[in-house]
Amino acid sequence: MTQQVEALLTEHFRYTPLSLIDDIINTVNTIIYRAIEAIEIGLFSIPPQQLGYSPDKNAASGDTSMVDADHPEAKDEIENGVHQLETLLEATVDKTFDKFEIYTLRNILTVPDELAPWMRLAHYELTH
Prior knowledge:
By secondary structure, the chain is an all-alpha fold. It has helices at residues 3-13, 17-44, 72-107. The chain has three helices and no strands. The longest helix is centred in the C-terminal third of the chain and has 36 residues, at 72-107. The two termini are 35 Å apart.
């Protein structure tokens, strides 16, 4: 994208094309972090027995306590798994949105170089 095209688009939209893409990516990242947090809260609220851990020998029968100090292996596994999921999602979003950014700047938020000098924004039109 030439400087002339970028200036034209920036004046038209009142922000740079890259700012729009950055806002989209930041919004997606925020949604990912909220989803990861919800997953972690959900996993910590499930009794360890439902996650496949054997019942605590010291716990009363029918105890449905959540993941806690009595099951440190469950806590560690959840934290590790959530971290791995977060890392995987971040890498996938970064890779995918790099492609999105390139495509959008090349094919959507652009004006052909040969047309840019001929374009006139509405606020430059002369009124009679």
